[in-house]
Amino acid sequence: MPKSILKIALDLPLDRLFDYLSNGEVTQVGQRVLVPFGHRKQIGIVIGKTDASDVAVEKLKTVIQVFADELPIDAETLNLLKFSADYYQYPFGQALLSALPVRLRQISPAVSCKQYAYNLTALGQLADLEQLPTRQLVMRRILLALQTHGRLTELDLDAISSSARKVAKQLVADGWLVSQQVPTIIKTLEAMIPVAPELNEEQTLAINRITQEAQTYKAWLLHGITGSGKTEVYMRLMQYVLQNQDAQILVLVPEINLTPQLEARFRSRLANFPLVSLHSNLSESERLHNWQLAQSGAAQIIIGTRLSIFTPLPKLKLIIIDEEHDSSYKQQDSMRYHARDVALVRAKRLNIPVVLGSATPSLESWHNAVANHKQANKYNLLSLNQRAVSAAKLPHIECIDTTKVNLQYGLTPQLIAALKLRLARKEQSLLFINRRGYSPVLLCSACHWIAPCTRCSSRLVVHLGQKKLRCHHCGHEQKIPQQCPSCGNADLHPTGYGTQRLEQTLAQLLPAARIARVDRDSTSRKNALVEILDQVHKQEIDILVGTQMLAKGHDFPNLTLVGVIDTDSALHSPDFRASERLFAQLMQVSGRAGRADKAGQVIIQTQFPEHALFNALRGQDYVSYADALLLEREQVQFPPYVFTALLRAEANNFELVQKFLRYAFEQARSFSSDVLVYDPVRPQMERLKGMERGHVLMQASSRVALQRALKNLVGLLRVHAIAAKVRWAVDVNPLEF
Ligand code: ADP
Ligand code: ZN
Ligand code: ZN
User: Fold this and answer.
1) pLDDT of residue 351
2) Could you tell me the distance, in angstroms and rounded to a whole number, from the CA of residue 214 to the centre of ligand 1?
3) Is domain 5-105 in CATH 3.40.1440.60, yes or no?
4) What is the value of pTM for the model shown?
């Protein structure tokens, strides 16, 4: 009998599968294999089997190794990735392999997901630690830990030492320990399970409606103001689903920062259900481990950032997307998928419900929930309009016109007074400024030269602490010049405010205040953010200064003042989504004020206090603002009223970019009459990391038409010689232009 031929997906920028001869081992679809490719070896995934190949059999190479002790990736996950690769115009093999934990993309065998826990034997219990040789430090620690805790899992061992697993095995061989396979190693704190609050009417209604239809696909948009108890709704739904069946639930969260808090809440309230998290802050082995626990079905609650939407979950029965409007759900390189959109597809294919929660839904979702109610299968709207804790009132929001008062170091007298009042009352304040660094520009007072980045169309940000100028786009760093390179003047001014400068200013103005800064610079060290937040909770901080990192999710009961500094540039941004984003951000950051029984106040410093955005914000009126924005979008035919895609290209030489885009533009024009193809243009950031950039925008009133045109176009581009000379990518439903 001829050996069967396997169709294998490889991590290559080619949109095809590769044929290999089976090495005789039993091989299933979805199985990981090692194959020869050119002079190297590659990891691949078996996608199918065939009897005939386009390649002559004698030319086919043979699979080197089948990782038979690993679970194959199931068909549902493979299909989802295939769909996504097609939809986002990305090679399937690359999409598939990059959805796997790094360890599974590596050639050495991954560690198994079988987990062991260790206990002391009778002999081990009698062991006298004092008698052990002192150099057996790890052994002593293991035995000591076992004598105090009774049982250690492999993860506990990892925490003791990187060699602890090896030592434990030796101790088993010596008869001191016994090992026992355990279903999961998930540490569920046997803490007190908190009492669930009594639900209010709106929460009850939302939960009832969803649970009544928990067996079918439905997209629920849970629109609830900050503090309205959305998380409580999630937890009740999760409980309902998990209690009634052997299920898995995927909870998507926008950022790693938010996972620990949500994880802690879920762990305590849903303590009986094994939980894992999947995000980029995990070590590679933790990530693999958690992923495998999800894949095997052992983990029942999976909290993850966007990539986790592609995790194999054999018993998936519910998907929850927290802060569904958040732009971090969109991948900005490689396969530019949107995790929310993929989640909707996944839920639909599995015929399970998906819940999208937000205080400020994306206009896409809002449109699907309200404007399109005639269409079947669109979203169902559920609203939570009240804060869950009845004493917690919505904050009072006011705008201070910065053109009408004398600013002191960029701060209005009103804000300074409000800060002083909080200090006197021993309450906390938060100042929100969406710019890290000391000041956003370095300006020459004589000739108005501004320090530019040589590799990007951007300005260098002053980081005074490090005495550096830094580009926030490409990471380029240089010393702060002593004099203006243009005119020689020595009077160079850091101009404008960033988090560092604000922090410094506050320290001068309010010397008694304990101030902490939260931005990417101050939290780059692992656990730094957790430590700061912890200090805030312990009332060791009076004023928090920070970027949007602070806007979300954090619940500080004693925080009663939020100040917003200088967000005006977003009001007049050329990006048509800027106001949607700013509104969401300000709603969220305002929601930090007055969460418990203390009233909150929000002071926004702006030159445009009468702007429609601020009017809506003062009234806490997402709905009318969203409706107004949608109306605008409809009038000018912007998303969500049309479907768009960008063909992006970059090269170190702009002529190449132009030539490539011109070719693409002409092709696309010629074959797609139902798609509007715009002339090639340069994005606002013309140069980035030394690369000259350009793009072609395509737009259609039908998703299908756009997909058809893109498929044709990408087919042509992939084989055209000029495409090899530029870096190009298709961005379907782009968020940024
Ligand atoms: P959101 O996710 O909408 O911001 P949360 O679910 O975090 O809101 O709820 C905000 C606060 O209100 C939390 O402290 C939560 O424990 C509490 N809470 C939620 N629902 C209720 C309820 N029905 N009764 C009392 N407190 C509630
Ligand atoms: Zn100058
Ligand atoms: Zn740069």
Assistant:
1) 98
2) 23
3) yes
4) 0.88
